[in-house]
Amino acid sequence: MDTLPDALIWDILSRISRTEDRNSLSLACKRLLELENEQRLFLRVGCGLNPANKALNTLCNRFPNLMKVEIVYSGWMSKLGKQLDDQGLLALSNSCPSLADLTLSHCTFITDAGIGYLGSCSVLSSLKLIFTPRITGCGILSVVVGCKNLSVLHLIRCLNISSAGWLEYLGKLEKIQYLVIKNCRAIGEGDLVKLGYSWRNLKLLQFEVDANYRYMKLYDRIAVDRWQKQLIPCVNIKELSLINCIIMPGRGLACVLDKCSNLEKIHLDMCVGLRDADIVGLSQSSKGLRSISLRVPSDFSVPLLISNRLTLTDESLKALAENCPKLESVRISFADGEFPSLSSFTLGGILYLIRSCPVRELSLDHVYSFNDDGMEDLCSACCLESLELVRCQEISDEGLQLVAQFPRLSVLRLSKCLGVSDDGFKPLVGSNKLDLLVVEDCPQVSERGIHRVARNVSFKQDLSWMY
Fold first, then answer.
1. For residues 336 and 356, is the Cβ–Cβ distance under 8 A?
2. Which of 54, 293, 434, 462 could disulfide-link to 267, CB 3.0 to 4.6 Å?
3. CB-based contacts of 221: which residues, under 8 Å, 6+ apart?
4. Residue 302 scores a pLDDT above 80
């Protein structure tokens, strides 16, 4: 080993990915230990760090070139010892000059003072905070001001972080590209307009509202009317996910949907107030759209915008079919409690979309309008490779048997479908048509009944959902 050049040993170490193997190798000799310490770029620690601050300081001194650090206290209990606190983050910021990516998960001892130390990490470009309840908007502002190259920011269940100050400052830097805000109760849809010109650089936006918290509050039309218009185009967004959001015509997020000219993937889940006009505008501007997921709320989900029609119609599906020639993944779902008469998409509208676009993946959840006739029409879907049916109660064995005639289908998933039984799978037994079959919680289907239906079979039966 003494005669081998450092470059060769570095190359050998770079080919060993498992942390356990690298740790074992570093014990072989002092030279390997030193070189492995220099090459270690990633560190993940958590409940086993005790005493936390001292142990982290030791690790940072041992691995001087760390670029990515994850500190995860999920499942922590007091008997495991004190968590890492503000002094631990001070040691991290002082000892890791190359730190570019930091994740803090369930770090309940860290406050604004601790997160403020990260402002000295000049190369920090990615920060992910998951349930850090003592951090507020002031702490985030100190990071944003100090870390001018911050391009990735995730805030998940950070209950005390408001939008005051930091969101506007982040927008002025025009560096943010990946922004994820989920269940941060003090940040609303109307606050996102503060990003200003940074909308032009965003590549991914995921925004989720804590629905249970919102519905407990008085959230009237006057509050929504105060939202500003979003005028700056979102030309670089490729992925957009909005969950439990309010879509107010002409304001807030409604202004975003028709400005994403390079959008490839969109997920709209329980977005109250979403109209056909929003989907039409989206389809006309996002002609490169490849994936769309729509979960439509019940008419009774939220009384907020009751004067607006809450359900989408076939007009939306027609617009997608005519304007998005690259669409290959479609998921349509209705919220629990939706009545069959209120299902806004008809069988004709769904099939028109499937026939017009090269759809390879189709998922339907709680779509009452989809029945055996729909399965028969899918026999002509030459691109369809994966089909998922969840709580589609109008599908019977007669429709299921048609799967044998689907030209390219290789993956089939069924969940909570009451109308199918073992008989529906008989034409597929031993046919080797399917690569994967997943059956979950279908009361009339047995594990024996799907034996040899596909190369790989997964079966689960839990009927508690019925009671």
1. no
2. 293
3. 304, 305
4. no
Which of 169, 218, 208, 168 has its CA nearest to residue 191? Answer: 168
Position 304 pLDDT exceeds 60: no
Closest CA to 355 of 412, 404, 317: 317
Least confident of 32-36, 95-99, 460-464: 32-36
Number of helices and strands in the chain (H, E): 16, 16
pLDDT at 335: 79
Question: What is the C-alpha to C-alpha distance for residues 62 and 293, in angstroms, rounded to an integer?
Answer: 46
pLDDT at 306: 46
Q: What is the mean pLDDT of residues 186-214?
A: 89
Contacts of 371 (CB under 8 A, 6+ apart): 347, 394, 395, 399
Q: 339: pLDDT confidence band, cut at 50, 70 and 90?
A: very low
Long-range contacts of 350-355 (CB under 8 A, 24+ apart): 350/317, 350/374, 351/377, 352/314, 352/317, 352/318, 352/321, 353/317, 353/318, 353/320, 353/321, 353/327, 354/330, 354/378, 354/381, 354/384, 355/321, 355/380, 355/381
Please state the length of the chain.
467
Select from 58, 70, 130, 73 the least CA-distant residue to 101: 70
CB neighbour burial string for 136-159, b if at least 16 within 10 angstroms, e if fewer: bbbbbbbbbbbbeebbbbbbbbbb
Return d(Cα 395, Cα 374) in angstroms, integer: 9
- How many other C-beta atoms lie within 10 A of the C-beta of residue 212? 9
Token pair 């676009």 is at which residue? Answer: 357
How far, in Å, are 188, 238, 440 from residue 330 at the CA level? 28, 16, 21
